[in-house]
Design brief:
Elements: H1 8-21, E1 43-47, H2 53-71, E2 75-79, H3 83-91, E3 97-99, H4 102-112, E4 115-122, E5 129-130, E6 133-137, E7 152-155, H5 161-173, E8 182-185, H6 189-197, E9 203-205, H7 208-217, E10 225-230, E11 234-235, E12 239-241, H8 247-259, H9 262-271, E13 277-282, H10 289-297
Parallel strand pairs: 1-2, 1-3, 7-8, 7-9
Antiparallel strand pairs: 3-12, 4-12, 4-13, 5-11, 6-9, 6-10
Helix pairs in contact: 2-9, 3-4
């Protein structure tokens, strides 16, 4: 006659199976709720190539590593091809976070639902800004933006706030149409500066961020050149989150950004002329109202990026 008693090992196995069946402690970890701050196991952070990507990547990796520790979630930096590529990537769910130029954010808002979280603060804990400028050699006969008619002007890249749209807005205010001068799109801020210093153009757009970086690197001697136009202050780049992200995730990321130290932000701050750096500060869509107005005034569409 067979015994109906279970051996010790069989009893243990039966107990474990019973617990598993009713959702007890042996329940698979994969069914546990996802972390609020790391819902997909990793976070992707997109950056526009407003400077040499080889230089930008290490700076943003340092920022991403600090953010990763705060959120207990890996944060991967992707330097995208251009403004339009970043907007498209966020719209298609390929980016969780994205830093956009101010005008790029306008289209990221309308086309990808991007929501601004933070921007770069000064050491005095005020939101930072920068300016677009047009520079000429110091011995140039060009004395003002109105003298650029019939001259050549180096710009950065199409759709950029300071590298393209604001200089053209300044020209329009001076009564100069795009067709009234030769506009050379060089592809970036450093390239526009080089076009001027190498004597390839009569004038070039150089914003205050690129100016500070070039002077620090010794690639631009300010005393050899003269600024003939400058824009109103532009609020610095917003770091945004995908609009369709979980509200709890948005709050967790914003809180993590705000809690970073100035040292965590310092390397990126150098590229944005925020030196000495302060903390990241909360921003909203309202901070960028002038850029929405600029896009409307200049009749810009997504195709202009």
């Amino acid at each position: 006659m067979k015994s109906t008693l279970l051996t010790g090992s069989a009893l243990a196995l039966a107990s474990a199976l019973a617990l598993t069946a009713c959702g007890g402690p042996a329940e698979s970890a994969s069914s546990a709720p996802a972390s609020v701050s790391c819902p997909n196991g990793a976070i992707t952070f997109g950056i526009e190539p407003y400077e040499d990507p080889a230089k930008l990547k290490p700076a943003y990796d340092a920022l991403a590593n600090a953010l990763s520790k705060k959120l207990d979630c890996p944060v991967t930096v992707q330097v995208v091809e251009d403004y339009a590529a970043e907007v498209l990537a966020m719209r298609n769910g390929k980016l969780d976070l994205g830093q956009f130029g101010p005008l790029g954010y306008v289209f990221a808002d309308t086309k990808a639902g991007a929501e601004p979280l933070v921007s770069f603060g000064t050491a005095e804990k005020e939101l930072s800004s920068y300016t677009a400028g047009i520079w000429v050699p110091k011995d140039s006969p060009i004395q003002s933006i109105g003298d650029l008619k019939g001259k050549s002007l180096a710009l950065g890249s199409v759709g950029s706030t300071s590298r393209d749209v604001l200089p053209r807005f300044g020209l329009r205010e001076a009564g100069i149409a795009d067709a009234d001068l030769g506009m050379d799109y060089t592809g970036g801020h450093p390239e526009a500066l080089l076009a001027l210093t190498n004597g390839k153009v009569d004038a070039a757009e150089i914003n205050s961020q690129t100016l500070a970086t070039a002077i620090a690197a010794g690639t631009f001697k300010q005393e050899d050149y003269r600024k003939v136009w400058t824009s109103d202050p532009i609020p610095n780049d917003p770091i945004t989150v995908r609009g369709d992200a979980d509200p709890a995730f948005k709050k967790a990321v914003k809180d993590a950004f705000i809690s970073l130290s100035p040292e965590d932000v310092a390397k990126v701050g150098e590229f944005l002329d925020v030196t000495p750096p302060g903390p990241l500060l909360e921003v909203t869509k309202d901070n960028y109202t002038p850029l929405f107005q600029l896009a409307k005034t200049m009749n810009l569409t997504e195709k202009d990026l």
